[in-house]
Write a structure and sequence with these properties.
alpha/beta; Rossmann fold; Alpha-Beta Plaits; six-stranded mixed β-sheet; four-stranded antiparallel β-sheet; 10 helices; 14 strands; ABC-2 type transport system ATP-binding protein; ATP binding; ABC_transporter-like_ATP-bd; P-loop_NTPase; ATP-binding
């Protein structure tokens, strides 16, 4: 299947010499939810701006829907929606008129039934006659989503869509994003909330200092880079690791009462949990009692932090099939 978005060698260097994007390659599949993760200044918003016409690249190419965006920008841009990070909008306009106007900006005819459907889906219909400035921060962000959906985009960018939104509203918006995917919309989101990517994304990309470190299916990334940590509390202290378990990635606490396992990861996933089970069997065979086991599996956030703190990006072969 042809990708809905294909970015090759994308570069952006500003007049002051700062390079925000350094030859980014990225392929987005039709119908997926793709999460782009990275710290402040990593290049996430610049990348979105380049696709949406807000930033002029200094190198590389962008193809959307199988066509070169630089040649057919106006027509292709009409098929792309953007929910920006900033809340700036026409604050004195009523919600309904503002969202309706957004559809007209793309030269589309009025569609009152569609606009009503969008506003109802985002719990905005009861607020349709209120000025945007009177709404809460969470409701204002919903208005931005409604404005982006008004022209029925096939590809939707969400730049920090839940920034400043409370937990309840955030989870409600997750449901709305999942509903968009069910309707066939391809969604690309940037977020500081790693749990959003873990909750919703099919694939995850990690960007640092204008370079893509990794792109992969979320489950595959967690299988390959995830780690297991287990703390085994012993009934009696040990002076040294018994020979039977010396080959495992274990360390002994200073007081000899806790065995710490750190391992797992690699292809196939689950290796860490299996090894912990083997360790406990060896302890039992050696007559060593334990009173508690505390096991922790890496989250996507753990993997994200480890990648960003690592001195080097993963080798090219570890960057996933999209690169």
């Amino acid at each position: 299947m042809q990708p809905i978005l294909e970015i090759r060698g994308l570069q952006k260097t500003y007049a002051n010499g700062f390079t925000a994007l350094k030859g980014v390659d990225l392929t987005i599949r039709k119908g997926e939810i793709f999460a782009l993760l990275g710290p402040n200044g990593a290049g996430k918003t610049t990348l979105i701006g380049a696709v949406c016409g807000l930033v002029r690249p200094t190198g590389g190419s962008i193809a959307a829907f199988g066509e070169d965006m630089s040649r057919h920008w106006r027509r292709l841009r009409a098929r792309v929606g953007l929910v920006p990070q900033e809340l700036a909008t026409d604050m004195f306009e009523p919600v309904l008129r503002s969202v309706t106007h957004s559809r007209g900006l793309f030269g589309l005819p009025p569609a009152p039934a569609l606009i009503e459907e969008i506003l109802r889906a985002l719990s905005l219909w009861d607020k349709r006659n209120e000025q945007i400035r009177t709404l809460s921060g969470g409701m204002k962000r919903r208005v931005l989503i409604a404005k982006a959906l008004a022209h029925e985009p096939e590809l939707l960018f969400l730049d920090e869509p839940t920034a400043g939104v409370d937990v309840e509203l955030r989870r409600d918006m997750w449901k709305q994003i999942a509903a968009l995917r069910e309707r066939g919309t391809t969604v690309i989101l940037t977020t500081h909330y790693i749990e959003e990517a873990e909750e919703m994304a099919d694939r995850v990309g990690i960007i640092r200092k204008g370079e893509i470190l990794m792109v992969d299916d979320k489950a595959a990334m967690m299988d390959r880079l995830g780690r297991t940590e287990a703390l085994i509390t012993l009934a009696q202290p040990l002076a040294d690791l018994p020979e039977a378990i010396a080959a495992y990635p274990l360390s002994l606490s200073e007081d000899g009462r806790v065995l710490c396992y750190r391992g797992g990861g690699g292809e196939g996933g689950g290796a860490g949990t299996s090894e912990v089970a083997e360790v406990t069997k060896e302890l039992t065979r050696a007559g060593i009692d334990y009173t508690a086991i505390d096991i922790h599996e890496s989250s996507l956030e753990d993997i994200f932090v480890n990648l960003l703190e690592g001195p080097e990006a993963p080798a090219a072969g570890d960057r996933g099939e999209a690169l």
